[in-house]
Amino acid sequence: MRLINTEGTDCDLICSRIIDNVRKESVSNKINHPFNKEWLWEQFKIEFQSDTGLPFEYTENYIKENLSAVFLYFMSDMSFFSCENLYQKEVAPSFDKGLLLVGKVGFGKTNIMKSFESVFKGYKPHHFKIISVDDVVDDYEAIKSQQEKINFYKYYTRGTILFDDLYSEKLANNYGQVNIMKEIIMRRSRKNLKTHFTMNPVEGYEDDPKGNLLALVNFYGARVVDRLFNMCNYINLNGKSKRV
Asked: InterPro entries of this UniProt entry (predicted)?
């Protein structure tokens, strides 16, 4: 589904119907996972402390306002669609899509997702690997032959990947400059591969999900931004890490 212009009553109605249809399809395809909320919460805390060396100690309200959407997504829980920080005005949320977690520097997005990466290691429905966009650029710049280039694209266009810190990468330079994440996003979109992202909000759009994504057009192009709406559930993480 492409980004929808919702100006006007008719467009609002059409958008609402499209979103409802995508949501219903997502729910009908959802997986009944062999774990409950309590198990997932306990495993997450264990992996978080193992990965960071620190206990996961956040206020209940902070978790509810920011992180519950991520937990409910992985649970395929219908409450996911009611989360206030899940953006769904122009784009239909779906369990079939990946996550785009947007939060300011210091929030702890990477550590949070690394913990989920560890929790779901070996569990195929949710298994994913985290790769920094800087590492993607470095890998591309190290390519020395056509076969290595083929292998590069094969590696980055299979399985579920979380690309960490989107929009922080430089243009790749290997006998000419290439916007390599733009190319990878387009290829993964064409193959309908589930993809997650983390990113810091574009300055000035911290509380404006639509504006934040549209601000990426100058770097990635309109087609890629359109694909991001189609590929991801946008979850806005408010404020910085608040360890108590």
From this structure: P-loop_NTPase (IPR027417)
User: Are 182 and 222 in contact, with CB atoms under 8 Å apart?
Assistant: no
139 exposure class (CB count in 10 Å sphere: 0-12, 13-18, 19+): middle
Q: What are φ and ψ of residue 189, in 5° steps?
A: -65, -45
**Alpha-carbon torsion (207, 98, 227, 4), positive or negative:** negative
Indicate the length of the chain as a whole number: 244
Residue 65 per-residue DSSP state: I
Residue type, 158: R
> How many beta carbons lie within 10 A of that of residue 239, not counting itself?
13
User: Cβ distance 148 to 85 under 8 Å?
Assistant: no
Assessment of whether the complete model's pTM goes beyond 0.85: yes
Tens of pLDDT along 83-130?
999 998 877 899 999 999 999 988 899 999 999 999 999 999 999 999
- CATH fold of 9-237 reads Rossmann fold (3.40.50)
Question: pLDDT digit string (tens) for 143-191?
Answer: 999 999 999 999 999 999 999 999 999 999 999 999 999 999 999 999 9
DSSP 16-50: HHHHHHHHHHHHHT----S--HHHHHHHHHHHHHH
In the chain, how long is the greatest CA-to-CA distance? 55
